[in-house]
């Protein structure tokens, strides 16, 4: 999504406020941080600030890949961070795929359905919530 440079600060402030209010409402102890990257390349430079990088890649799903997300959840330790990347409508380009591979991003299929850019992050957050809040805490 392209944002008008003049409006970026206000949009980030608004999104951070939403994140804070949502965290308070759901009794979370950690408030998610909202960051802005003006381009895909800038996002790739920022990957070093995260312990893991995973990208939703519909071609992985078509090829039957269904374990990268579950494997990530099993590997991650408390306090570690994950950068989740979701491509635009139409998917991740070949050029972006090369950049993702250069930073050793894991490519994850999100099941047999093609999800919209707006809903794919909610799918991953829901899966993470299920795994960490319900499944893992009950099976430790």
Protein model, in words:
The structure is a single chain. This protein is mainly alpha-helical. 46% of the residues lie in helices and 9% in strands. It contains 6 helices and 3 strands; from the N terminus they run ααβααβαβα. It has helices at residues 8-25, 40-45, 58-62, 68-75, 94-102, 120-138, and strands at 52-56, 82-86, 106-108. Strands 2-1-3 form a 3-stranded parallel β-sheet. The radius of gyration is 16 Å and the shape is globular. It starts with 7 loop residues before the first helix and ends with a helix. 11% of the residues are buried.
Measured between the Cα atoms of the first and last residue, the distance is: 40 Å
Total of DSSP H or I helical runs spanning 4+ residues = 6
Q: Name the quaternary structure.
A: single chain
- The SSE order reads HHEHHEHEH
Beta strands, count = 3
Biggest sheet strand line-up: 2-1-3
Rg over CA atoms: 16 Å
How confident overall, as mean pLDDT?
A: 88
**In what range is the share of β-strand residues?**
5-15%
Look at the helices and sheets and give the structural class. mainly alpha
Question: Major sheet: size, sense and barrel closure?
Answer: 3 strands, parallel
What general outline do the C-alpha atoms trace?
globular
* Uncertain residue ranges: none
Q: Roughly what percent helix?
A: 40-55%
TL;DR?
The chain is mainly alpha-helical and 140 residues long.
List keywords for this structure.
mainly alpha; 140 residues; 6 helices
Protein topology:
Blueprint: H1 8-25, H2 40-45, E1 52-56, H3 58-62, H4 68-75, E2 82-86, H5 94-102, E3 106-108, H6 120-138
Parallel strand pairs: 1-2, 1-3
């Amino acid at each position: 999504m392209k944002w008008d440079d003049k409006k970026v600060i206000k949009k980030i402030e608004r999104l951070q406020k939403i994140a804070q209010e949502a965290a308070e409402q759901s009794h979370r102890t950690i408030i998610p941080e909202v960051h802005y990257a003006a381009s895909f390349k800038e996002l790739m430079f920022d990957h070093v600030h995260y312990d893991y990088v995973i990208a939703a890649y519909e071609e992985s799903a078509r090829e039957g890949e269904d374990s990268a997300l579950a494997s990530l959840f099993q590997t991650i330790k408390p306090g570690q961070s994950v950068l989740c990347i979701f491509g635009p409508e139409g998917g991740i380009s070949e050029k972006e795929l090369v950049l993702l591979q250069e930073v050793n991003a894991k490519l994850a299929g999100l099941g047999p359905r093609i999800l919209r850019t707006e809903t794919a992050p909610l799918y991953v957050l829901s899966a993470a919530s299920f795994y960490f809040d319900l499944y893992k805490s009950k099976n430790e």
